[in-house]
Known about the structure:
- The chain contains four helices and six strands, in the order αααββαββββ.
- Strand 4 and strand 5 form a beta hairpin.
- The model is unreliable at about 15-40 (pLDDT under 50).
- The protein starts with a helix and ends with a strand.
- The chain is an alpha+beta fold.
Amino acid sequence: MKQLTIFRMFSLLATLALVAMLTATISMSTVQASEPQGESDQAPSTEPRAVVTALIDAMQANDAERIRSLFDANASQAYGDGPAKSGAAFFSWLDSDIINRQGRVENAQLAVDGNQVVVTGQYRSRGYTSAANFLMTVENGRITSWRMRY
C-alpha cells in the first residue's frame, strides 16, 4: 500500500512538472508571436504616395478596418464638381460604396504633386467597372479628400 501511495505522488509530481513545462512553452510562443517583426515596429509612412498606396492595397484585400484608418475623421468625397460629403456622411459613403461593394483599383498608377495624389487605373466593385481618375489629398498621414474626376 505504501508503494502505491509513493507511486501516485511521483505520478502527480511528474504531471505537475509536465503542465508547468507546457505552460512555459506556450507563454514563450505567445511572447515571441506578439513581438514586432522586421520593419513593423516603425511608424507607417505619412508620405502621400505611401498613404494612397496603402489605401489601394487595403482596398484590394477589402480590409475595412485598414481602409477606414487611412482617412482623416473629417475626410470629404465628391463626384466631379459636385458637392462634397464629409465626416460621418463620408464614412457612410465609404462603407456603402467602397467597402461593402468590394471596391478596388486595378493596375493603379499614382502621380504625386506635393500632398495631392492622382490615381488612375481600372476601378471595379460588385456590379460596376469604370476608368479610375481620383484626386486625393493627404495631410498629416491621412487622406482628407477623395474627388472622383470624370
